[in-house]
Amino acid sequence: MPKSGGNDLDKIADVLLQFFKIKRISDSLALIKEFGVSGWEKWWQVELALFLSQSGDMIAEWDMEHPFDTDRRSRLAQNRMTLDIGFRLTRHVKESWYFVELKQADEYRVCINRMCKDADKVLSARKHSVDGLSIRYIACAGAFLDAEEKAVLDYAEEALDSINVDHDGFYFNKIGKGYNLLLF
Fold first, then answer.
1. C-alpha dihedral over 46, 152, 33, 177, to 10 degrees?
2. Please, which residues bridge with residue 172 across strands?
3. Are the beta carbons of 138 and 125 closer than 8 angstroms?
């Protein structure tokens, strides 16, 4: 995704990992897996928003479904899009925000394919939102059932190469019992 100075991907990963370490969230993930619940992406988005709203020492501001105009030179037919979650860390410039597109699927290949569609979409966003917020960094985050890390990273690399999307690397970690998190 966009090249940027420093550890922006790590900063987003830190926020998401803190979220997944919450006992209530890890307990919910265990139940989701036990009962075979799929399609929990919206639950993730809402719970993450609630977490961000209560993380005053780390998060200065947050927003869901923040609107952006698209670059008219992009392949997208639409003129406007929204990004799932945005937040500004404390002690960061007021208009400089991190944005994350969330995806969830049980199978990692399906999840990565959906993440790549999002990557293609978010690269068409103008650098400033409709409300004037500036994109510091955009990441795609995907959650899927446990899989072997090398296979996941190899597949993600190939998938991003196939759509000509550069990235700053990958962040792969276990979350809860039976799930992995991938960021790029």
1. -90
2. 182
3. yes
DSSP state letter for 97: E
**Tokens 């929990």 map to which residue?**
40
From CA 50, how far away is CA 4, in angstroms rounded? 27
DSSP letter for 6, please.
Answer: S
Q: What is the rounded distance in angstroms from the CA atom of residue 60 to the CA atom of residue 88? A: 6
DSSP per residue, 46-94:
HHHHHHHHT-TTTEEEEEEEEEEEBPTTSS-S-SEEEEEEEEEETTS-T
Domain boundaries, the chain: 8-183
To which residue do tokens 């998401």 refer?
16
List pLDDT tens digits, range 54-105: 998 899 999 999 888 877 555 555 678 889 999 999 988 888 899 999 999 9
Contacts of 184 (CB under 8 A, 6+ apart): 1, 9, 115, 119, 139, 140, 156, 160, 167, 168, 169, 170, 171
pTM of the full structure: 0.89
99 by Cβ neighbours in 10 Å (0-12 / 13-18 / 19+) ranks as buried
- Helix axis angle for 41-53 and 8-20, nearest 10°, is 100
